[in-house]
Queue: 2 jobs
Job 1
Amino acid sequence: MNRRASAADFAAAQRVAHLGTETVFAVSSEAAALAVQGKTIYPFHLGDLNIATPENIVEASLRAIRDGKTTYCPNAGIPQLRDALAEDVSRARGLDYTAGNVSVQPGGKPVIAKFLLTLMDPGDEVLYPNPGFPIYDSLIGFFGGVAVPYTYAEGSDRFHLDLDGIARQITPRTRLLILNDLHNPTAAECTPVELERIAELVLEHDLLVLSDEAYFDVRFAGASRSLASLPGMRERCVILYTFSKKYAMTGWRLGAAIGPKPIIDVITTLNVNIESCPNHFVQYGAVAALTEDQSGPREMMATLKGRRDVALGILNATPGINCLTPETTFYLYPNVTGAVKSTGCDGHESFRRLVLDATGVSFCTRLHFGHALEGEDQYYLRLAYSGVSTAQIQEGLGKLKTLIESYN
Amino acid sequence: MNRRASAADFAAAQRVAHLGTETVFAVSSEAAALAVQGKTIYPFHLGDLNIATPENIVEASLRAIRDGKTTYCPNAGIPQLRDALAEDVSRARGLDYTAGNVSVQPGGKPVIAKFLLTLMDPGDEVLYPNPGFPIYDSLIGFFGGVAVPYTYAEGSDRFHLDLDGIARQITPRTRLLILNDLHNPTAAECTPVELERIAELVLEHDLLVLSDEAYFDVRFAGASRSLASLPGMRERCVILYTFSKKYAMTGWRLGAAIGPKPIIDVITTLNVNIESCPNHFVQYGAVAALTEDQSGPREMMATLKGRRDVALGILNATPGINCLTPETTFYLYPNVTGAVKSTGCDGHESFRRLVLDATGVSFCTRLHFGHALEGEDQYYLRLAYSGVSTAQIQEGLGKLKTLIESYN
């Protein structure tokens, strides 16, 4: 077992070979390096917000510090927050969760790891979206599972998930389904009929579901739906909830796992083992977020809608770019196949570099959300408009348009 | 693979059968329930602090919120905090860490899970202290390793770890050693000669070490030593650092892994996967903690020393109780074998319940820090004096003394 001579060549555990990352952070670093050199950067790459956390949340957290909430708190979170989350999530989904169904987490992301650690054995197959949030694939492999991708297809007016692909790939080893309806990066949403079909498959094949609902409350029109609301699904879904997006609290790191009590109890025991509890006093801010005046999130959504519309206008006026209009998330997922070809680029990455170097517009592409699947012949970008002002959108995407036009 | 009919009998992953917990939380709940019934409780069970976080830390965090530090931050933590930690930890240990050796974490505890995930393969043997922090044993088993306990023995003036037990139990499958010098619960510290012997074993058997230094800066006299300071050990040790104890920041959830860069890089990739980053703005508070006036921690240590001495005086005046004087941690680990016998109790748990019911003094015993090992015939309590006032100590331990005397 002499696996190394020094730490410089230390032998990591075998599972580390399966560990992925979020390559978006490499794009961030690259953009930051260019900015340091004096280049004007238009940051469309990161799903972060350049909008302040509402003041009432800050004030409630500060009061909690002054009130001595700087000690450990219960492993599953403070009772007031578990109650408020159960009530809020139940109301929006027509369900009846109580505090016992809620385990507060230091962010939404920890729910992914804890869901897999609780329910996935080595060799179990897990269906996950590709394109999709890259951490699903990474952690399935890291914890010994088999990651089975299903995809999304572009329709005439929306993206939709490949239901046949899900059904076709279910085997006796399939145990879990990861669903990210209100989807990052495509902003796709299932129709009620599609959700029913998913529920049928879940019941027929005895699956459990991670329902990543990070963007459930981030929408411009209509109402979000949760798979958990369908008959039989409450007992088979663990909802990933986060305060990050709705309340502009990305850096606060607060979220929750919400689902059947026996599963939530194990997840809370993982809290005991992995981090004891989330930060104590920010949970009082989160209670204020859920129970007080909602003008903060409303104003944020109005701001985001304005940005979305400006971006859509410029993108769809650019030759070789076509972008559908999503009603949820703060991402656009334009099809840029024509522009990639007209600029003579040989793929996603060369197009990304061309645009970044020529215009300073920094974004992710389809390849930052998983490896390309067999038969893919279209090119897509993911533009996050959560961290750029309307003026930056006009200027940056204007430069992008001029660049593409110069090739036509 | 039909493993359940509903979530009520959901089948957890097999690893969940190996997941332990901190039974101290059960003691907390029990004490809280008695308090609700009107009983006066003297809380010696939990290693939490009833001392406010120093004001400069609160102020720096608040300024960071106002300054927009509510967004994501780099996965390894903000550069200023990594620099400050590298400098502080290096100075205290005579080492030369830089920011690249530091990965900031949402608490000290996450370092345990990430160390094991990075370095332990299924079947690897890991030496860990018993009595000791119960999470070591739990997570070694949960992630598929084999937990091999070594113990501590009571000497005439101090507890010392069983070096022969470590040496005797090393096999070709032994890969990792968990060392918690400045030890919870016994407050034991290795002598320089003992640390040298550990370093020899580590080199001879090609081990890597988790050096849990949570209490490194919590001491009343003398200077702490780190195994990492010994020749060859910097490259083989990952230090668990926490702000929880030194700065009365338990509920802030902030710590760090500090060690060889190749290992730290993997741990930071685990940050990307598991929680993105620690809370952003509290890291500015931590920079203030490390770089500004240290009167807060100094006053805290003076307060704790006063409590320690009062507690020691009463314990050592109680028949059948003998307690050594530790210069570190905020725990006392009295030998209560005589008192257990004089009260007619048949073990740790019945003695704990007798005292709790008769006096309201709530504490943990040896059994909250691991299963009893073969040949153990002494009884020990762990009394945390971090969360009780001097008046509570006098009153509570006074009642304990009176109770024990009534049996003699």
Job 2
Amino acid sequence: MSRESRPIGVFDSGIGGLTVVAEIARQLPKEEIVYFGDTARLPYGPKSTPTVTQFAIQDTEFLLRHDVKVVVVACNTASSVAVDELRSRYDIPIIGVIEPGALAAVSSTLIGKVGVIGTEGTITSHAYRERIRQLDSEIEIVEQSCPLFVPLAEEGWTDREITLVIAHEYLTPLRDAGVDVVVLGCTHYPILKQTIQKVFGPSVTLIDSAEETARDVAQVLAEFGIANDSGEEPAHRFFVSDVPHRFKEQAERFLGAELPNVEVVGIDELMAAGR
Amino acid sequence: MSRESRPIGVFDSGIGGLTVVAEIARQLPKEEIVYFGDTARLPYGPKSTPTVTQFAIQDTEFLLRHDVKVVVVACNTASSVAVDELRSRYDIPIIGVIEPGALAAVSSTLIGKVGVIGTEGTITSHAYRERIRQLDSEIEIVEQSCPLFVPLAEEGWTDREITLVIAHEYLTPLRDAGVDVVVLGCTHYPILKQTIQKVFGPSVTLIDSAEETARDVAQVLAEFGIANDSGEEPAHRFFVSDVPHRFKEQAERFLGAELPNVEVVGIDELMAAGR
């Protein structure tokens, strides 16, 4: 297989990364995608850095067995804590969701005040804050973890009053701080975009890491000269480590399309890959 | 070590099982407890039966290496789907949380209408319903999964208005059905007991599986003649597969006491135990 025609590997702790897959498929319709969702061990958000790093290595090794040309870490938590370790281990490009999101935030803010929301792991790592400060040390950054947003998105309570009340609870400090840009630092949050926008009002720009990351993937493929320009219809493959209850319903909400056949990878097999 | 002085093994997907530990320690103050919380792979609630069963076997094998005399499956999801498999594999008593909760529900209902609440895994398995029907086939059972209760309990939002609103959302069908007993079929739910009671009013009895299970443990130890009657102060041991963010704060909320030293077991080690 030529270098160009090899697939793009994407992994996430579960199904949230399907928002990134949807964006890559939209922006790069000729590229084949191999997705791995670690649904047996999700979520990564509350878990420690050593544990998330170990899982991220195993997930990457699994994708490498499918001969991927780049690995997209479509999980903010893993991107926050494990991307450096992955880059030091592997020769192919490793694309996290932090850099594209941070870059878009810096480009978008008019007043130099940026909010970042995410899981406990992402916020505690301060990965967005550090990356934004590297790009522009003058920017003021307000961070907030929103642990209930993932379960609310998975429950599908996207337009309920209750979700708006919880969003107010988490986001009021950011609104009061007067940020004009907010990074949605978790692949689940685009599902709640309308509710989040309602709290901030129309003058605040929300940065969706899925969109920015897909743009970054396109750029990396171009720069490395490995974009696929064959005329064949790509056949994506979807792997998960478990098929949880309500999987199909939830996965399709994130993918925004009908989910094709999903293959299950045993945890044993996965761990054997990461040794 | 004599059979009697061996510890009681308790496992859970995470920290919820500490409510069971607290009750065992209260009811059986002479017994030593070895606890394992699978915090690297929590939660078990949404995951499939084969995956939860595989994890439960590995958790049990880990406890057996500590020479436990009984294993308490302090996780409703694992009790619902994996206890039969564990009983067929091991010779020591395996105590789940379903039987004690079902028995208490049948004893407590005056009108023969019982509500059961739990995770997706527990409710989808219908384990409580089946067990209650075996005890009394006349009882009417209304089941409801409440996926947001675990994250709400972990967030510590126990007495917020928002939690009451979500509780109303989930529990109104049970209240309207006129149940007089509700089984709290998840070790996290006792943390939300006051809120849940508020929705149902004082005339509805809530069954706390932690209390019932600790009573069952006492009975099994007596029946098998393996209760510890030495005068020594027991030294409990606590193992987890990860130390997530906010672990100590959350664990102590469930244990209702200060948490002693916690030892971390690698996932590799855990899986090696389950082969």
